[in-house]
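Regression test attached.
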Amino acid sequence: MGIGFRKAFSSLGILLLSAVIAVGCTSKGSGESEATGTNSASPNASEAAASAQPGGTIRIGIMEEADTLDIHKSVMNLPSQIGIQIGGALLSLNPATNELEPFLADSYTVSEDGKTLTFKIREGVAFHDGTPLTAQSFKDTFERIMNPETGATTAASFLRGVKSVSAPDDRTFVIEMETPSATLLTNLTDMPFLQPLSMSAIEAAGADYGRNPVGVGPWKFDKWVPGQSILLSRNDAYNWGPSFYERKGKAYPDQVEYKFFTDMQTMMAALDTGSIDIAYKVDTSDAKRYRDNPNYTLVEADMQGLGLFIEMNLENETLKDVQVRKAINKAINKDAIIQAVLNGEGSPAYGPLPSTIFGYDPEVEKYGYSYDANGAAQMLESSGWKKNSGGIMEKDGKPLQLELAITNQDSQAAQMVQAMLKEIGIELKIQVWDQATLLQKVSQGEYDMNFLIYGYNDPDILYNFFHSSQIGGLNHVRVRNSDLDKLLAEGGATLDQEKRKQIYAKIQNIIVDEAYWAPIYVPKVIHVANNKIQNVKLQKSTLLLDLYDSWVKPK
Amino acid sequence: MISFVLNRFVSGCIVILGLTVLSFLLVHLVPGDPVQVMLGIHATPERMEELRSQLGLDKPLWTQYVRYLSDLLHGDLGTSIKTGRPVLVEIADRFPETAKLAVSALVIAIVIGILTGTLAARFKGSFIDALFTGFATLGVSIPSFWLGILLVMLFSVTLKWFPIANGTGFRDMILPALTLGVVASTLISRLTRNGMVDALSNDYIRTARAKGLEERTILFRHALRNVLIPVVTVIGLQLASLIGGTVIIEQVFNWPGLGTMAIGSILSRDFPLIQGTILFMGVVYVVINTIVDILYHAIDPRVEFGAKVAS
């Protein structure tokens, strides 16, 4: 697909200082990263089943109310979380082996040219409304996604490159591609966004479908009390779980309830008093208290994306010099910022990708920039800068002054960076903007440096940040690097996962070597679970809670 | 009387018309392109155009306002950007919870306010008077959200007597209603006390005492009646401000009313929902005020309607 699509696509992944994380796009290799919490090891049903008991309710507190449970139309996180519980997918990704495995499709074949994918749909699967699952269900659902009128931005991005879908018979589902896609097969494992929907349910509910969703998952939608909660109840007919679970049958708890909160402290108080069993995405400042408490378990992983990084405008006279950009990278003490801003609940970022995204190259930790103030100052000196009497670097009589554009949420980190750069003789002015203005200015190149955050789960996001065609969009640093352009285009079209990995390793190397960004940290996504709920896991590819094997300890 | 009611009704309508101007202009007062603000900077041009024409923002300002008014008259408050549901439906989902909480708080406020006010007046100058008056002064100065947090800490977290975020049943309502009620009771209490002190010094009270009437009858039958007129006015206004005041308290107690929805809509920049909620709350406020105004004149026989209207 063309650039236009990419631009639209990019709107998903980028969030500036927003709590929402765009999730869903799975990638085969993401399982290799350590998306594990204290008790979120790879599914091991036999271990869990030994003492697992049916019954009870899991109550989860979350800091948002869903917009709509029509997964094609939602732009929030909770509908995805609920989506993996009420839905299923054609294929599944075994978290232990990272292999694609059957799920709602018994088997599949890919044509020689990589453009025709044929799936055999499993028999005996039914939607919660009783409608049997057929190839037609997938055809209708995918066509609904691809119809621009639906507005299924996220789901449609997962089907990028799909030309058409067809259902020659009840059990055969065919996808025709325009060009072979690196990500489509793994995208098809995405339970929230590419789950089959019951067209009869959509027709019956009309405009109210978003409040009456129907799927094929282990839980079914029960009720939504506005402002309060969404209740799911167990689908007793469920016996078509992904093949990597040893157990295929129904889930253990009778119900799962999501309770909406508007105040984080109220949510934590609800966890303390037992009104909820799991607090979904807690503040890092609250995490430590529960980490030290034997009655709770932290289910956590690094965020998919970067929590904070600096972009540097290559059209700025001073920042054109790679030595200055490298010096800025070396001057930043990432650990100190993580301690101060995240209470230590995060990992330093050395490259443009976090360890939780496919293609992350661990080598980056070795060749990336670590804190070295002296080295940074020397770099500036080697580039002709000299400290003046005021301790500020100067070149041809001009002091080294730069401006850092931020929104006020990041002022603490900004002040720390300001002090760190001062150490090496760079005078940093902090400019606070509101979110919209900041993004507008940086996409037009009217800035020196700025703070940004992104959330995504495929390395293809780097195309948006660094491809020369994206200047004016997300290529805020305004880089035109033909080698990089070529690699970024290749990365998006390479089917072979090993090759794709190597391409992204090169890309990361170039980006770090050229120091276009100064990556700072990857925060943790932390959920706190009361130990009365056993076996709470994270789905590695989406970082959503996987409750299929979870059970409630009887009192 | 009829002309007075008509007068209040007309001035109520004028205030509401002013409200519509304010809520209409809200979108236009936001710096920058409102559609951009609503959808975020990376929205596709198509989606922005769609929303722009959906909201009518591509038309001249006065045309937009006329359209806005005409939609309002047809009961159309717009569509929430976040949920895609009509704003009126969203409000209808939440308002009953807010009303329930506000009315319960008012009942608590009336009971506490009148009881403490009356007792303080009866034992004027005593320890009880000092206690209740001090309590009332304290209550006026305490921010309700702070009191709410304290009550949660004590009764929910420490003592575990009341659940948090457990629904909207009777037991769930006690703490938030108490928080709002206690704070609102202080004004009622002070007014009652001052009125009662005046009333109790009247000759007819002395006569009643001389007749040997029971103290309770004297206090609540004879004296309180004369104090009620200003108190009732304040109670009406309290109800209006309670409905607005629940915004913060709903937040503290995770109460699923209009307040939490309003804050949520502000955070998600859901302009039609913000506009609708502001307008709705404003209208409720005006309506209650108008009713109180009319009631005030109805229960106080001394008020001459003609004279009032003229002034």
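Expected vs. actual: identical. Chain B touches chain A at residues 31-32, 36-37, 40-44, 47, 82-85, 90, 93-94, 97, 149, 152-153, 156-157, 160, 163-168, 250-257, 260-261, 263-264 (CB under 8 Å).
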